[in-house]
Amino acid sequence: MTEKAHIGVTGLATMGRNLARNFARRGHRVAVHNRRAERTDNLIEHFSGEGDFVPTYSLSELVQALERPRRLVIMVKAGPPTDEVVDELAPLLDSGDVLVDAGNAHFEDTRRRQAALAERGLHFVGSGVSGGEEGALEGPSIMPGGSQQAYGELEPFLSGIAADVDGTPCVAHIGPDGAGHFVKMVHNGIEYSDMQLIGEAYDLLRHAVGKEPAEIAEIFRRWNTGRLDSYLIEITAEVLAHTDAHTGKPFVDVVLDQAEQKGTGRWTVQGALELGSPVSGIAEAVFARSLSGHADLREASRGLPGPTGTRLASTDIDGFVDDIEQALYASKIVAYAQGFNQIQAGSAEYGWNVDLGSVATIWRGGCIIRAKFLDRIRAAYESDPQLPTLLTDRSFQRALNEAQDPWRRVVSRATSMGIPVPGFSTSLAYYDALRAKRLPAALVQAQRDYFGAHTYRRADIDGVFHTEWSDDRSEYEV
Ligand SMILES: NC(=O)C1=CN([C@@H]2O[C@H](COP(=O)(O)OP(=O)(O)OC[C@H]3O[C@@H](n4cnc5c(N)ncnc54)[C@H](OP(=O)(O)O)[C@@H]3O)[C@@H](O)[C@H]2O)C=CC1
Ligand SMILES: O=C(CO)[C@H](O)[C@H](O)COP(=O)(O)O
Asked: Which SUPFAM superfamilies does UniProt cross-reference here (predicted)?
């Protein structure tokens, strides 16, 4: 009888193929399957030398190839394709088997699938995986949800293939049912925000300061040696330094300026709206992508008047470049603060008990938002797991204090020059709103009571009140 495989992977496109190779490189015998056989054959043809693969050509053959309890990873397109695969697999599996969906599923889908499969005695683990093509092969950040028991079955496999930072694998059990996919969704929301902020920094360096892409690449390289050290800053420098082979122009100038999205950023904002969690930086990043794609609207608006502001004086250039670094760092703190607060809100809503310090720990390596900065976030939550917001952590407070004037100068200079900085400005507005003694929300409440008798609470007396606006304006307690 042939030896059974330790783990299986179905879905051998970019991510699944590399995850399968990663498992095999760690010494596991890996059964592989793809709906279209070409991908399976391709993997075997090109990579069979890397480890012990068992090619299979149907889901039932895949299931038969696995030792029990079976561990089977699904890495196919999220949405209906995942349901199709799960529905076909479920009757083939036995009680105690562990089915992992490592795609970018919506966490509500994961909750539904987990509950349905639990009725059959199957463990369903919705797991976030981040790192793209290279990360899947060399070591991703892995965010598994599902039961603790299922995690116990998977842990030796996942910690082996995950990225490693200072001897700690970038994988941790996030919490029950959809917790893993929820945290991956917020990871992607923060990714959108981070990318938008970097884009705005680039735009200012280009159009306010007047630098060329190759020069801006050098600035990002320098920033990448400091507190902004991160994968996204690193790849930004690489992109900006790249020249288009066809035209000899900077590569960034030949790419159509319409950013696309697969949907996880939008889900983050939709989820935040449901939870009442203000993730304004992520929302602006999603809308900025959507605005960029409205070619007709942009074309129709191109001739609209703008400000008369001019470029910076040459003597102000170096100082302004430093200001942009400060604004970028401060806005990045806000983006992460908002994302972590959303995780806190989701965790409370669904009873997941997510450990925020652990999330920061596993995001330090492997994933798209990996950054030196996450070490600070980990330390912040380790020293105070109940921290209301990262903004009040002592070390971030110091950075925000230092950034005050530069951050405001950047937003004001961008505004006066007509350069859109929705990420920088919404982060600053969020920061100012949180620290404000009084907000105009008081006036909004009064307006609501005026037109709709929606009532209000007073700052000085307990209770709920209404004023007779259309009568004698007397106030009574509701
Ligand atoms: N690409 C990335 O950087 C990242 C992707 N992800 C997520 O990982 C998952 C896989 O991503 P990626 O590798 O890019 O591949 P794709 O999202 O492009 O999905 C392609 C894979 O899905 C399979 N598939 C599609 N429809 C079906 C179906 N109805 N039944 C069975 N199989 C189906 C395809 O099979 P076939 O070859 O037969 O068409 C192929 O194996 C996705 O959920 C994605 O969101 C997560 C992190 C990063
Ligand atoms: O999950 C990922 C990284 O962790 C993907 O790279 C992400 O889905 C890309 O998203 P989009 O296409 O919406 O920019």
From this structure: 6-phosphogluconate dehydrogenase C-terminal domain-like, NAD(P)-binding Rossmann-fold domains
